[in-house]
């Protein structure tokens, strides 16, 4: 009788929100379906309870894109979730557009330290901002929530942070290659197709890209460099030359480059609406960017700058763009200074470098000021013109304290932050 009473008390006090669980391991399989223009994701997820007791975990899928697209709807859904002995409820709507949950609930409460293994399947309902598939390429970015992770109920959700170890396997048509976060493990035949395996070894959430690439490999010192080209615009020698100079310059300012590899994949202009995407230890670069002045040096420096600012150092809001986009654009100025000299840095303060997005210019910023659209940097929110304001005005603001306190104090302070 006493045992029944204690069991009832345990259930009554157990968490029912699905929070309190942490991911121990997440093995993910990615199956692009180019004919149907969708992506299927299978995950084998091991969770451990880090709170006193729980009736079971909840998994989160998707991402809130409302700051960027006011009408953005759900773009992912669970098709199957199983855990031994548990009931599951799929696709509970999230508190924000684009997010769904799967609730895994057991008949009795799990105590602290319990491990639970969950297998799940999910599918892309339609392409989204940084989760894309066309008839020739596909990619999923770290912050898009394209794979399931345990829900957080008692703290902030960090969409781009996920150090959970595990394998990422990308299943590919013959002649295609993949790029993913972490270390390359193997490429193996799978019937008429191929599967490439990557080992997650960084603290960022996972990203991937795949397409009919021509793969080139190089070294910068001891660091592996992998380049995935679709057209002659992806020139391996030009890219490695630029990347080597940029990383050397920025490492001297910020501290060591934080990743063991650098990789870049070319993407058709028609596939995405952005110019480049920094995804921790690799980047996705539009064809027109690679065709621009000197292999897109300026935008390339911006994306490499994100290795420190936005990836290694994550922002809070409002004002978060001063850590991400403003510092990434300031990294471009520093790279120009390190490679081409002080005069080029001074010129960049007043003259836009060629090859960047046409809206992110000083002329466009002064136009926004004249139209009364300028916003204080400390009040910047995500999306919209705030991104442009931070990208143009932010780096010029960083120049001011550097000029006042000098390089030694300014850059030693930045190194302490990272």
Descriptive account of the structure:
The protein contains nine helices and 22 strands. The chain is of the alpha+beta class. The strands form five sheets. Strands 5-9-2-1-13-16-15 form a seven-stranded mixed β-sheet, with no helix packed on it. A five-stranded mixed β-sheet has the order 18-19-20-22-21. A hairpin with a 2-residue loop joins β21 and β22 (282-286). α2 (236-254) packs across α5 (325-340), α4 crosses α5 and α5 (325-340) packs antiparallel against α6. It starts with a helix and ends with a helix.
- Strand tally: 22
Name the poorly predicted regions. none
Q: What structural category do the secondary elements indicate? A: alpha+beta
- Output the strand order for the largest sheet: 5-9-2-1-13-16-15
- What percent strand? 25-35%
Could you give the distance between the termini? 57 Å
Q: Write down the overall geometry.
A: globular
Q: Assembly state here?
A: single chain
Task: Tell me, rounded to a whole number, the average pLDDT.
Answer: 90
Q: What is the radius of gyration?
A: 23 Å
**How many helices does DSSP assign?**
9
What percent of residues adopt helix (DSSP H or I)? 25-40%
Major beta sheet, specifics?
7 strands, mixed
Summarize the structure.
27% of the residues lie in helices and 32% in strands. The chain has helices at residues 2-13, 236-254, 287-291, 293-305, 325-340, 342-348, 362-370, 385-405, 407-417; strands spanning 21-33, 38-49, 53-54, 58-62, 76-82, 87-93, 99-105, 110-111, 115-124, 131-133, 138-140, 149-150, 167-172, 177-180, 183-190, 193-199, 208-211, 214-220, 223-229, 261-267, 276-279, 282-286.
């Amino acid at each position: 009788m006493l045992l029944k009473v204690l069991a009832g008390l345990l259930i009554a006090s157990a968490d029912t929100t699905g929070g309190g669980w942490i991911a121990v391991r997440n093995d993910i399989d990615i199956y692009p379906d180019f004919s149907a223009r969708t992506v299927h994701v299978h995950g084998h997820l091991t969770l451990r309870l880090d709170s006193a007791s729980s009736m079971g975990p909840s998994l989160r899928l998707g991402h809130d894109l409302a700051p960027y697209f006011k009408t953005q709807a759900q773009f992912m859904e669970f098709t199957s979730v199983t855990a031994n002995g548990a009931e599951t409820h799929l696709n509970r709507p999230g508190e924000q557009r684009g997010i769904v949950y799967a609730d895994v609930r057991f008949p009795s409460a799990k105590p602290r330290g319990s491990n639970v293994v969950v297998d799940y399947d999910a599918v892309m309902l339609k392409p989204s901002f940084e989760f894309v598939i066309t008839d020739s390429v596909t990619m999923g970015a770290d912050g898009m929530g394209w794979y399931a992770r345990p829900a957080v109920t008692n703290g902030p959700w960090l969409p781009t942070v996920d150090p959970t170890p595990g394998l990422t396997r990308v299943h590919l048509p013959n002649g295609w290659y993949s790029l993913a976060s972490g270390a390359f493990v193997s490429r193996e035949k799978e019937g008429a197709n191929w599967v490439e395996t990557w080992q997650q070894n960084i603290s960022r959430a996972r990203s991937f890209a795949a397409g009919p690439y021509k793969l080139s490999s190089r070294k910068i010192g001891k660091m592996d460099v992998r380049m995935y080209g679709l057209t002659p615009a992806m020139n391996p020698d030009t890219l490695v030359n630029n990347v080597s100079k940029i990383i050397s310059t920025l490492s001297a300012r910020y501290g060591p480059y934080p990743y063991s590899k650098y990789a870049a994949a070319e993407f058709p202009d028609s596939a995405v609406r952005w110019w480049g995407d920094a995804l921790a230890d690799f980047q996705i670069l539009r064809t027109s960017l690679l065709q621009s002045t000197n292999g897109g040096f300026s935008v390339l420096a911006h994306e490499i700058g994100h290795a420190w600012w936005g990836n290694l150092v994550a922002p809070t809001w409002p004002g978060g763009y001063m850590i991400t986009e403003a510092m990434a654009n300031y990294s471009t100025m520093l790279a120009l200074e390190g490679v081409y000299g002080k005069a080029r840095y001074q010129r960049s303060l007043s003259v836009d470098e060629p090859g960047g997005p046409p809206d992110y210019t000083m002329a466009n910023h002064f136009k926004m000021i004249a139209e009364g659209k300028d916003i204080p940097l400390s009040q910047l929110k995500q999306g919209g013109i705030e991104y442009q304001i931070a990208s143009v005005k932010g780096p010029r603001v960083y120049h001011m304290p550097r000029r006042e306190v000098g390089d030694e104090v300014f850059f030693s302070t930045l190194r302490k932050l990272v």
